[in-house]
Amino acid sequence: MLGLKPTWSCREVTVRAHRNHSFEHVISAAGAWAAYAGIKMNWAEAPYDDALSMQGLGEQPDLEVIWYDVEAVQATLGDEVTGWLLSRAQALRKLSSAPILMIIIGLGEATEQSLGKLISAVPGVRLAPTSLVLAGMANPFDERLRRLSGSRLSETANLMLAKELACRWLPVMLAPRLKAVIVDLDQTLYEGVLGEDGFQVRLSAGHAALQSALKALKDSGVFLGMVSKNAREDVEALFTARPDFPLRLADFSATEIGWGSKSEAIQRACHQLRIDPSAVVFIDDNPGELLEVAAHLSQVGLIHAAPDAAQTRRNLEFFPGIWTWGVSHTDMIRVADLNAEIQRRNIGLQAADKTAYLRELAPKLEIWIRPVALRDRLHELSNKTNQFNLSLSRLDEVTVDAYLHHPDKFAVAVGLSDRLTDSGIVGAMFGSIKDNEIIVEEWLISCRALGRELEGLMAASALRALAPEAKAATFRYKSGPRNSPGRDWLAKSSGGALEHEGSVSITISTLPAIADLPINLTIHSNERS
Amino acid sequence: MKDPKNLEIEVAKLVSEILGETVGSDASRLTVARWDSLKHMEVIFAFEEAYGVRLDEAEMAALSSVKGLAERAMKQA
């Protein structure tokens, strides 16, 4: 497999390793898996350094890796090793704004967890769960290799770490996580064909585990969709008749059951989920269906559902972009919030006017000024939001941190809930402010919060909370392939046509005011202090 | 017992697969530029797996030619 060369184009990524033991074997083995993830790693060498002094660093890479075996310093540092590693991450953070991945060998699970907590305070740094990976192996270390290869890691450990790096850690450090898994039904979620076997389709142990893995993904904020060539009433009856299925029909946020092409069904499911097909992985047992989807929706990730469902589950769990560093509150509420959207639409259809609609929903808006604790969510929003994203800045965590801490800059988070669900933090505004002069460098709202016509009120509430005396704000914008909802709002609010890129001023008094609407507003000012 | 010449050809084939270029029975780390330290480890691991051998540290470093590896495989046989 190591010799395979991709026939597709890969994103070139420069990785610089700060190390005290050999990283070459992992990089070499990771190449093929990285290509599977659409990434070509170019390795920028840094010298071996037990002290991780970060001296003489050259041009900034796309990713910094601290590849370190604590064995070298454990005897000297003892319990202080976590504090020392934290200091090294902080030192590198000052020298580079690239994401930093720490892969530390030799820490126990508890020590690794406590280091992970400390590291989370440093923007853009992630600690790989190395102890968990190595704990699952019979022989993570091979003393014969220490001198010959420059590392005590065994061949198996190098291969496993290479796979984790390329398929799990790297993809979600360089791009947002995938948003949905769409699955076929027959021979994918169970053995058999509903149309032939009826409710007697078989749930093997492997298929049960696959369904449980899908349910766990749903609980971690990934939408589930179903695309199946069957009759809808048969599918509904199947799930009712089979309580042994770990998945229930209600776990699927989008179901496209019918006889048309699967690529068209996936597009409709994406529309329901308000996501782009590039954020989807599709699982089907039929290679012909996978080819049809590949031909019409090349941006969709594909997994072949093998007869051995355990293999399918492993392929899913290592599919690039599906793994996550952790499940946030926003992740947990995402699926429920989308499901509530259907109810909101119904309320909207029945309401006499906008005021009646809002009164029925009872929205609560919360504004946080410079909320340091929400840094990760602000970063996530900046990188995931496409439709209502005015300047598409795609801020990294270090830049978000600067907006949160710099005296002349600001970052605002907007939270939204209503009587149906808590949508969590759905909006973010970044910019600079001096003497009531506000420049909004980025203003974005998650697509989950669109359609409630609260965009203007959110912006006005944020601006008024930031500077009650300010009369106007200048908004920067840039056209992108999908951000017309945001640009349309800006054009309407500013009263003028927009160029491809530029800035426009909005008079704050022309934006909606909270007093005019049945909405509860809470301001959390200057969270930084 | 395998014929030593055949074994050398077999080992040369295995080394060729790892290096991504065809090498003969007289190949060694001194004569093949691509057979660097990184590839050497891959050659060693593939050799251990193919012949059911577990080399010690000194052997891993010393067995740096097709002939040397073939002789070691012969011993195992």
Report the end-to-end length of chain B measured between terminal Cα atoms: 7 Å
Give the beta-strand count of chain A: 18
Q: What fraction strand of chain A?
A: 15-25%
Put simply, the count of helices of chain B is 4
Task: Assign an overall shape of chain A.
Answer: globular
Helix content of chain B: 55-70%
Query: Based on DSSP secondary structure assignment, what is the total number of beta strands of chain B?
Result: 0
**Cα-to-Cα separation, first versus last residue of chain A:** 53 Å
The helix/strand class of chain B is: mainly alpha
Radius of gyration of chain A: 25 Å
Describe the fold and architecture.
The complex is a heterodimer of chains A (529) and B (77). In chain A, 40% of the residues lie in helices and 21% in strands. Chain A is α/β, with parallel strands linked by helices and 529 residues long. In chain A, helix 4 (109-119) links the parallel strand 4 (100-105) and strand 5. In chain A, helix 11 packs across helix 12 (287-296) and helix 14 (329-350) crosses helix 15. With 77 residues, chain B is mainly α. The N and C termini of chain B lie close together (7 Å). Chain B is 62% helix and 0% strand. Chain A binds chain B through residues 2-3, 24-25, 28, 143-145, 147-149, 155, and chain B through 17, 20, 37-38, 41-42, 45, 55-57, 60-61.
